Automatic annotation (TrEMBL):
This is SRCR domain-containing protein. Disulfide bonds join C87-C97. Residues 18-117 form the SRCR domain. Keywords: Disulfide bond, Glycoprotein, Repeat, Secreted, Signal. InterPro entries: SRCR, SRCR-like_dom_sf. It is found in: Secreted. SUPFAM superfamilies: SRCR-like. The keyword Secreted applies.
């Protein structure tokens, strides 16, 4: 079940000026970065699991299950802050990855997103208790 393009439902977990918007839980959604007083998006050119891993880790959401492309979680509005992101996967911040920062050749139909695993924090009997989210695996 997906709610596309409603635009501003924010189920976010904000950390280090990074948030996930419009997803079904706190650890999935369109990636937005705060810069220069505004939230902006990431273009999906070169967007892949290594890049998504960095975002997931940064938000304490475990590792990436998927890197979503093509505005899977709806089109954002405003600026596109990053394009051609080329993380190795072990960077501590998405801005530490090589990319075209604050410059791009994209439109919002290319807004990037992530689906993260969530973070498993404890086992109780047969139950898995997950930190932050529903995507615990
Ligand atoms: Ca990449
Ligand atoms: Ca590009």
């Amino acid at each position: 079940m997906m709610t596309l393009a409603s635009g501003n439902k924010v189920t976010s977990n904000e950390s280090h000026y990074l948030r996930l918007v419009n997803g079904p839980g706190q650890c999935a959604g369109r990636v937005e970065i705060y810069h220069s007083g505004k939230w902006g998006m990431i273009c999906d050119d070169s967007w892949d699991k290594a890049d998504a891993d960095v975002v997931c880790r940064q938000l304490d959401c475990g590792s990436a299950i998927n890197a979503t492309i093509g505005a899977y979680y709806g089109r954002g509005t405003g600026d596109i802050w990053l394009d051609d992101v080329e993380c190795v996967g072990n960077e501590t911040h998405i801005l530490n990855c090589p990319s075209k920062q604050f410059d791009h050749n994209c439109g919002h139909k290319e807004d990037a997103g992530v689906i993260c695993s969530g973070k498993r924090i404890a086992h109780f009997a047969n139950h898995l208790l997950c930190h932050l989210d529903t995507f615990c695996v």
